[in-house]
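Quick one - first record:
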Amino acid sequence: MDIDHSALLDLEKKARRSGSGLTASDLVGCWQLNTIWPKGQTEANALNGWLLRSLGACLDISGESADGLQLRNAVSLAGLTLQFTGPGELNGRQPLLKFRFEQVELLLGRFTLLKRALPAPENGREPFFALINRSQEGWMAARGRGGGLAFWTLRG
């Protein structure tokens, strides 16, 4: 599934003006990274997109409780999985999905090879995604703290 970059920019302008209307329940699922547009670029980074799709890059979002969301960002290759996990929350009208990864793990199948706590980011420097849209067709778009635009598809 592909989407036009200019169509995403139009949706982003609308989300900035009026909000995206997205809630925590709209985000729950395993989102496979499909396309990345680096900051200021109108062309997708084909190599990075292909590489991340090949590694099964996935943003898994769960939990809709008062405690917020739980995020897991992972890539896998030949049975090895590198994953970052931690809490997230929605803030603002667009909204922003703010998160912090507290732990990194390297797994071989179900066996943990490495597990380390990560330092907290400086106050006000937490990573986030400014949520643009989540379609009924199963895709989501957001802009990251670094300015890049990301397009995910819901993994079935």
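second record:
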Amino acid sequence: MNVKILRLDLIFLAKLKQLLNYKYKILFVFIVYLVGLAALILANFNYIDDRDRILYGTFAFFWWNRHSSTIAASILSLNSDYFVVTFPYSLFISIFLLSISSIIFLKTIDKKLLNSKIALLASVSIGLSPYYLENLSYKFDAPLMALSVFASIFPFLFIRYKKIFVITSIIGLLIMLTSYQASSGIYMMISIFLAFIKILEKDIKEAFRILICFCISYLIVGILYLMIYNPEATYANTHILPFKYFLIGLDKHITNYIKTIYSDMGGGSRVYLHLVFGFAFIFVAKSILNAKINKFLAFFLSIITLIILFILSFGLYLIIITPTFYPRSFIGFGVFVGILSLYSIYKGKILSSILIIIFVHYLIMFANYYGQSLKAQNDYETFRWTIMLNDLGKFLDTSHMEAESKFNIKTLGHSGVNPVIAKSKIQYPLIARLIPNLQNSWGWSESALDNYGIVGNSNNKDCDEYSSTKVLIDTYFHTIESFNPNKNTTCFLITYKNITDYKSNF
């Protein structure tokens, strides 16, 4: 028994050492990621949750069963009570984890591709996917989300050794499910793809072994996860679909998933979809040409596999009552496209190389355009907050600093986005969903004011109900009103005006 355990230990260490031998390939991929994300780093944008965390150091991952995220955040901050902002260091950690994931991913698809610069470029589809850009936008959460991707792919480093593969799969899947569940489709997709390749090679036994390992790992992890699983029912209802509505719910989620992707990739983004369809066509063609089984059967299986991989890219969100369709939930789509692009590579063929160069160029171009858009939005919001606070400050005095209970702010409306971004939405609809508007009725809007020293008790329920208000100032950009629900409380009502829609008509 000790010999067997030692052998597993030696295999594990040998594989890690082998991974170190790929350090220059990892560095190459890291640099490609860095080029793509340069504008995002320079934007220095506090993305949604960052507004709260940067002020209060809040963790709050346990609400979504993200216990691994809590532990990782504590390690990253060297503090279990206060989550410290470490940007851009946190983004570099994310890129590093994604770079290793890309290399393991590449090696898993076909180890011969490790010697191809084109293949190394294609592997960045995981982290430079237009959808994954939202995950990378979070200063605090980005490395935790990258951890979930890494944990999903890392076990495939040991795919040839089934025992250690199952062990690392169980550990990896458990980390993934307790860090960021949007990565849940990655392990499934890669397993199905590898089994499909083995079937084409007429190695049915190996395909069966892969599927058995996949099922055993997910079954064990599923049982373990259900022991700590605490469903939420807020903006996303994470309860599993009831049995009698399972097929109806599944069909609805798949349909909405397809509609969302098609809608996001309108205008100039159609290029991305066209490239994906091009890779899909080559995927089917290569499957037929390389198959050692009946060609018609290979054609049929390749189409079925394509459909299954695409559906699984949405992960476990397929089976919960109300999944989210935010871009950050589509992590699996980038991996799906990565599988297609890497498998499309023919040795000595020009077509696949040209498609991949165009594909990676699009990813880098879009990522940098997104980073520039975040910077433009940050400048626009700073401008809107500055003029609003200048107007609000005229009605504040030192008495409002005595206690939060006497000073309350409620926000309504929304300020829209930078006019330049508003116009670009036609060509890049996904930008509209990636760029957050934090000057609205969200709680984040009021938290953001704390950055300027305006600390109002936005949780005071007295300010939620009002029948009459006094207009203090009404400008082109906003309206500021006040009211007193009781003698001890002053409430300010700030209504942002969206001037972008008006301007975009001209």
